Amino acid sequence: MNALNGKIAIVTGGAGGIGGGQVERFVAEGAKVVIADVAEDLGTALAAKLGENAVFRHLDVRDEASWNDVVADTVSRWGGVDVLVNTAGIAGYRLIADLTVERYMNMIQINQIGVFLGIRSVIATMTERGGGSIINVSSYAGVRAGAGVAAYSSTKFAVRALTQSAAIELAPFGIRVNALLPGVIDTPPVQGWAQDRRAASIASIPLGKFGSMDQAARMAVFLASDESSYSTGADFYVDGGVAIASGREPPRAKRAKV
Ligand SMILES: NC(=O)c1ccc[n+]([C@@H]2O[C@H](COP(=O)([O-])OP(=O)(O)OC[C@H]3O[C@@H](n4cnc5c(N)ncnc54)[C@H](O)[C@@H]3O)[C@@H](O)[C@H]2O)c1
């Protein structure tokens, strides 16, 4: 339970879902964690539950100035940043025929530019500390697109490209950058799916079940820790095999269905 002893981490999207699971496990593993999210109530409550090793900071990942503030605040509070987990993201389904530029751009701003700003914001402090680990949450939809996910998948492919470029650029400074590719993780939104949708999705997963938030978090712990010290620029799947399974087409190619 001390894989991350003494590490200082920022987790975007850390107020709930996969990010919330990462925050809880990171603290359990000995890290100090900044929960960086737009969800004030959830984030503050999670920080209060976890005690002095977790703190909530409001961050909209689209906003350059806020990134500078959150990183500067972390440096003055705890001395630097060792780990950045870029988990904040939004999903949503639209066939291309129904997809507006506004909707597409918002997804790019949060899922893609948010990750870029995060990477850029921590380079100086990580370099100063002699290295660090950046984990960018992509998706199984970041290796294979399907109907209704043109915008989402495009941003998740882009996250993997950003990861590869950053890994090469930052390796000389001891900063590792990897992509985490969840399959279907049983977060509150997935728990809210209709039973038939959940059943159809489970049927497409070789391991025959959704992943838990803790399973996704454990991969993030590995990537954040020194156990993964020779890994950079790579894709790490926590997906029950769904990315390689055939016939993975999601059963949701209906018009204008969110
Ligand atoms: N749940 C899954 O099955 C699954 C599968 C593959 C990939 N992912 C990816 O995992 C990540 C987390 O997904 P989740 O299912 O936990 O979603 P979620 O909606 O439960 O959590 C997302 C978090 O991001 C925060 N957020 C949204 N916009 C933000 C912004 N502009 N700035 C800062 N924070 C913001 C939300 O407040 C929320 O706390 C996303 O990047 C998603 O694409 C999820």
- Rg, rounded, reads 18 Å
Q: Any idea what the CATH superfamily is called?
A: NAD(P)-binding Rossmann-like Domain
> Order of helices and strands, N to C?
EHEHEHEHEHEHHHE
| CATH second-level architecture | 3-Layer(aba) Sandwich
The helical percent reads 40-55%
CATH topology: Rossmann fold
- The low-confidence parts are none
Which structural category fits the helices and strands? alpha/beta
Number of self-contained structural domains? 1
**CATH class value:** Alpha Beta
Give an overview in words.
This protein is an alpha/beta fold and 258 residues long. The protein has one domain (8-238): 3-Layer(aba) Sandwich (Rossmann fold), CATH 3.40.50. It is built from eight helices and seven strands. The longest helix is centred in the middle third of the chain and has 28 residues, at 101-128. The chain binds nicotinamide-adenine-dinucleotide (NAD).
